[in-house]
Amino acid sequence: xxxxARIVPGGKGNLNSCLIIIYRFRKSVRCxxxxxxxxxxxxxxxxxxxxxxxxxxxxVIISDRDQKFASELWTNLYDMLSTKxxxxxxxxxxxxxxxxxxxxxxEDILRRFYAYGMEYxxxx
Length: 124
Description:
By secondary structure, this protein is of the alpha+beta class. 43% of the residues lie in helices and 20% in strands. One of its GO terms (biological process) is DNA integration.
């Protein structure tokens, strides 16, 4: 799980960031639009509403050492769900390389998308 910044604001609520969640074994990706300024609580609610409610409780979550994911709120959430939190090591692509590569790809796709003057539309 990781976050992306540097996205042109768009959609309902001027979304300017993305929470990227990768299912390691299925190699599938979920990109959840959000605000860069979101608090740990906002991110936890987004995660709960979009992931836990549709996929169930995850056994292990690997994330970088972002303050949003290392906060007391997230620690308590992991404890309540009996989910193990593993922090990735900096400059160690074997741990979180798939997420970092996906972030690069998403930023490239969005940059090209906006270069052609297209606008983000809500999917609802």
